[in-house]
Specification:
single chain; about 270 residues; mainly alpha; transmembrane; MetI-like_sf; membrane; cell membrane
Length: about 270
C-alpha cells in the first residue's frame, strides 16, 4: 500500500514503472524469440527478436519510402475521419434532440453498424472511381458509428430539468444548444471521437492491405508477402504509434476544451 501511494504521488516514479513494464515485455519477447519457444498453441520459432526489428526500423527510417507511406496513411485517415466528425456529430445531435429524426435515421444506422469495415471494401471499390477514395471511405465508415452513438448518448442524457429551466428563463433554442446541450454532451462526444480515431486506423490498414500502393498497411502486408518478418513488426509498431499519437491529440484537445471537467482516473 505504501509503495502504491508513493507511485501515485510522485510522477517520476510512475513513468519509471511504465517504462519498466515496457522493458520487461521487450525482454520476454527477446528471450522467447532467441530460444525459439514453442508452447504448442503459440510458437516463437518464426518471430524475429527485438534486435532484428530495431535493425529493420533503422533501415526504414533511412528510406525515402517512409515519408510516402506515413503521409499517405495520414491523409487517408484524416480525410475520412474529418468527414465522419462533421456528419457523425450532426446526425448524433439530430437523433438525440428529435424523436422524429431518431425514428427516421436510427433504424438504418443500427442496421448498418454491425457490418465490419472489411465487408464494405468490395462495395466501395465498385462505388468510387479510384482506390484512394474507396480507402478514405472505409476510414469514414469506421469512425462514423462510434461518433454518432456517443453523440446521441451524450445529447440524450442531458438533464431535462436544465433545459426546462433555461426555457422558462427565456433561453432561445440556439442558446440552450450552445450553453447546456453542447457542454453537457461534450465528454461523451470526445470519447466517441477517440474511439472513432482508433477504428479509422484499424479500417485504413485493412483497406491498404487490399487496394493500396502506399501506406503503412500496404507496407506491412508487402513485408508479409515477401517474408520480411521483422518489417511486419516495424509496420505494426508504426501503426500503433500513429494511432496512439492521434488519440492523444484528441484527448488533450478535449481536456483543453473542457476545463471544467477533471479526469477521475489518473493517467
Amino acid at each position: 500500500m505504501a509503495v502504491g501511494r508513493m507511485v501515485e504521488r510522485v510522477p517520476g516514479v510512475r513513468w519509471l514503472v511504465r517504462a519498466g513494464s515496457i522493458l520487461a515485455c521487450i525482454g520476454l519477447w527477446q528471450l522467447a524469440s532467441s530460444l525459439h519457444v514453442n508452447l504448442g498453441i503459440v510458437t516463437f520459432r518464426n518471430v524475429p527478436p527485438p534486435t532484428e526489428v530495431v535493425q529493420s526500423a533503422i533501415v526504414l527510417l533511412k528510406s525515402p519510402k517512409l515519408l510516402a507511406h506515413v503521409s499517405s496513411s495520414l491523409w487517408r485517415v484524416f480525410a475520412g475521419y474529418g468527414a465522419a466528425v462533421v456528419i457523425g456529430i450532426s446526425l448524433g445531435f439530430a437523433i438525440g434532440r428529435s424523436r422524429t429524426a431518431s425514428d427516421l435515421l436510427l433504424p438504418p444506422l443500427e442496421l448498418l453498424r454491425p457490418i465490419p469495415a472489411v465487408a464494405w471494401i468490395p462495395l466501395s471499390i465498385l462505388i468510387f472511381p479510384s482506390s484512394e477514395l474507396s480507402m478514405i471511405y472505409i476510414t469514414f465508415i469506421g469512425a462514423l458509428f462510434p461518433i454518432i452513438l456517443n453523440t446521441v448518448h451524450g445529447v440524450a442524457n442531458i438533464d431535462r430539468r436544465l433545459v426546462a429551466s433555461a426555457r422558462s428563463l427565456g433561453g432561445t433554442p440556439a442558446a440552450i444548444l450552445r450553453e447546456i446541450v453542447l457542454p453537457g454532451a461534450a465528454p461523451s462526444i470526445v470519447i466517441g471521437l477517440a474511439i472513432g480515431m482508433g477504428t479509422s486506423w484499424f479500417c485504413l490498414v485493412t483497406a491498404e492491405m487490399i487496394s493500396g500502393q502506399f501506406g503503412i498497411g500496404y507496407y506491412t502486408w508487402e513485408a508479409y508477402t515477401l517474408q520480411n518478418y521483422a518489417d511486419i513488426i516495424v509496420g505494426m509498431l508504426v501503426i500503433g504509434l500513429l494511432g496512439m499519437g492521434s488519440s492523444w491529440l484528441l484527448t488533450t484537445l478535449g481536456h483543453h476544451l473542457m476545463p471544467w471537467r477533471h479526469p477521475t482516473v489518473a493517467r
